[in-house]
Amino acid sequence: MKKIVIALDGHSSCGKSTTAKKVAAALGYAYIDTGAMYRAVTLYMLRHHVALTNPKEVCDALDNIDISFHYNPKTKRNETYLNGLNVEDEIRKMYISNQVSEVSVVPEVRHAMVAQQQKMGRKRGVVMDGRDIGTAVFPDAEVKVFMTADVDTRARRRQQELLEKNQLVNLDEIRENLQKRDHIDSTRKESPLRRAEDAALLDTSHMTIDEQVDFVIDKVTSKLLEEAHAVKKVEA
Ligand code: DC
Questions:
Q1: Which atom of ligand 1 is nearest to the CA of 117?
Q2: Which of 110, 135, 170, 207 fits a 20 to 30 Å CA distance from 62?
Q3: From atom 14 of ligand 1, which residue's Cα is the shortest distance away?
Q4: Rounded to an integer, what distance in angstroms lies between the CA atom of residue 5 and that of residue 136?
């Protein structure tokens, strides 16, 4: 069967990565968490005190950054590595969440990440979640979904996620972080967060994970059927 690109974009903490992982598993596709890449870059920039306003410093830093994903059979998930070191837990901490949007506005950072993501998806058969997948990374993605949810629901879900990692964070702090990130992500000059014209809207405020997964799988099925019919027509 033809392999396609599935782009899941949307606001912070509305269930994109959970949905993307499950859709990828159901289809036997690769899952690429582009937010993790921006988080890993942020960790590097903070550790090396890189001046984000100095393009030369930023480019030199980017030349020294290698991001990869490796499957961990113990946790049964793909984990993020920065220059060969597992940084999966570190990049999910609040101090990274508080800085990541500022790092993600830097044009040199975006160019490097977008190029790497396009390389990762060049053979297709990928589910990518992020902010600009359907608009900048793969504008030709066969299936695009723009996900959102009300901010209180997102904050509660994020708090629960952090709690599961033994991080106790106040709900107000999380809500503020989400709102701030949404604002920076949507108003930046370079590939801002926005719904692509051809993206289906999915509000997950009152949905279960399974319903979200079904929504995306339905879109994929319709697309593949549509393409199969088009091929048959050409052959007939
Ligand atoms: O998906 P996430 O919350 O882990 O993403 C963290 C941040 O990374 C997000 O606030 C903005 C940035 N990001 C981006 O600018 N473009 C992407 N494709 C993915 C994430």
A1: 18
A2: 135
A3: 131
A4: 13
